[in-house]
Amino acid sequence: MSENKIKISENTCSLKDVLEIIGGKWAMPIIYILSKGKLRFKELERSVEGINTRMLVKELKNMEHNGIIKREVFATIPPTVEYTLTDKGQKLLPSIISLHNWGKEYAT
Q: What is the span of the domain harbouring residue 58?
């Protein structure tokens, strides 16, 4: 019986590298929600079911650092912060939608 193994060269991006860029378990739902347009922090927090404020802040910082989202701060009182997907983040959408569809079919 032969096993199919994926051979990953040192010169190519591995799945582990991709997962490090995307982030934790909340990254894909955040990206999916931001695909509908820019959102303020509280709107985003209300849209991601089950996430707490601390975890949302951590995920957003990680995704901003990796160029997945853009954070825009407006000089208002209190400060207004809006989040949008970058081009890099937009390119993740087809993969996330495919995973979402796979999950609806097989993970429920």
A: 28-106
State the CATH number of the domain containing residue 66: 1.10.10.10
- Asked whether residue 84 is domain-assigned, the answer is yes
* Helix pair angle (93-106, 27-34), 10° resolution: 120
Q: 40: which residues sit within 8 A by CB, 6+ positions away?
A: 80, 81, 82, 83
pTM: 0.80
More confident residue, 16 or 26: 26
Measured distance CA(48)–CA(82) in Å, rounded: 15
Q: Is residue 37 a part of any domain in this protein?
A: yes
